[in-house]
Design a protein that fits this description.
The structure holds 2 protein chains of 2 kinds.
Chain A lengths: L1 H40 L1
Chain B lengths: L4 H22 L13 H28 L2 H33 L8 H22 L5 H25 L17 H48 L1
Helix pairs in contact in B: 1-6, 2-3, 2-5, 2-6, 3-4, 3-6, 4-5
Chain lengths: ~40, ~230
């Protein structure tokens, strides 16, 4: 049973890690967009 | 798609939960392997999803080489990235299943295992190339690499038909002898993974569009600052 749970946990850890990477990328792009907006208005 | 996104997200979450329940509890226990066989319900649909994404990557790369279309280039990048995620699941869950069933984590020299590992390495190289190359020809070089990578997909898929391998026989086609209840659980999980892949690809595509727009705006801004 432990192998079964290990496989399922590993699967969701892989997907979770990738989603976390996407979330980080999203916040970086958002920050860059805001600084560009500030640059244009300033 | 923007409006349909929350609905598809809810449907995907429900399908994944139902698929998980069916895989762990609903599906019948396999006679010889026992509960460890249930890894199959994540391993096989992940492999099919990865193959499909690599084929999309192939089609998008060919389209990019012919038409130099930025959308095709972005689709190629996104499908390769999400495909690598699913392929990583395959590479990780396979040995976790093999250890209790075969007594070893990996069968060195086995054609199915080796070609899958090579496939994963080709697409990792593809992503490394896209991430770190500063050449203006990166998209073209990446598209060519993707075409070579896609050649490995049928080799991985058909290897268990044409070669003697330790990997289990195919579950579909001539060699398939899967219990209909197991088929049902396998298909539920595949549909759930396809929905997940679609959602993630769509999100990643939007991020790539935004990232390229920011890059262009930054380039324009620095040009503007230089000219002042």
């Amino acid at each position: 049973m432990s192998y079964l749970y290990a496989a399922y946990i590993a699967t969701w850890m892989i997907h979770g890690t990738y989603l976390a990477i996407l979330a980080r990328k999203y916040s970086r792009i958002r920050r860059e967009m805001e600084s560009l907006k500030k640059g244009v208005s300033g | 798609m923007k409006r349909g996104f929350p609905i598809l997200a809810i449907v995907t979450a429900l399908l994944l939960s139902f698929g998980l329940y069916e895989a762990l509890i609903g599906a019948p226990t396999e006679r010889t392997m026992g509960d460890v066989q249930r890894i199959f319900y994540y391993h096989v649909p992940s492999a099919w999803t990865a193959f499909l994404l690599f084929l999309i990557n192939f089609a998008a790369s060919v389209t990019y080489l012919i038409r130099r279309n930025a959308k095709a280039d972005m689709l190629a990048l996104v499908s390769a990235e999400v495909g690598v995620v699913f392929c990583t699941v395959v590479i990780v869950t396979g040995p976790i299943w093999a250890r209790p069933v075969w007594g070893i984590w990996w069968a060195p020299g086995d054609i199915r295992l080796t070609t899958t590992l090579v496939l994963w390495l080709i697409y990792i190289s593809y992503l490394v190339l896209r991430r770190f190359s500063t050449s203006g020809q990166t998209a073209v070089i990446a598209a060519v690499v993707a075409i070579f990578g896609a050649l490995d997909v049928p080799l991985v898929y058909f290897s268990i038909w044409f070669f003697r391998t330790q990997h289990p026989s195919p579950v579909i086609g001539d060699g398939g002898s899967l219990d209909p209840r197991m088929w049902h659980v396998l298909l539920i999980n595949w549909v759930a993974f396809l929905c997940l892949a679609w959602l993630v690809c769509w999100t990643r595509y939007q991020l790539e569009v935004a990232a390229r727009q920011v890059e262009e705006a930054q380039a324009l801004q620095s040009l503007h600052e230089v000219s002042r």
